[in-house]
Amino acid sequence: MSLSLADIHAAREMIAGTAIQTPLVPSPYMSGVCGHDFLLKLESTQPIGAFKLRGAANAVLQLPPETPGVTCCSTGNHGRGVAYAARKRGMKAVICMSSLVPQTKIDGIKALGADVRITGKSQDDALAESQRLAAEEGYVEISPFDDPHVIAGQGTIGLEVMEEQPDLEAILVPLSGGGLAAGIAVAAKAIRPDIRVIGISMDRGAAMDASIKAGKPVEIDEVASLADSLGGGIGMENRLSFPLCKALLDEVVLVSEAEIYSAMQALYYEDRIVAEGASVVGLAAVLSGKFKPSGAVATIVTGRNVDMKIFTDIVCGRDIDLDGMKVEGRTWQPA
Ligand SMILES: *Cc1c(COP(=O)(O)O)cnc(C)c1O
Question: What is the model's pLDDT at position 318?
Answer without folding.
Answer: 98
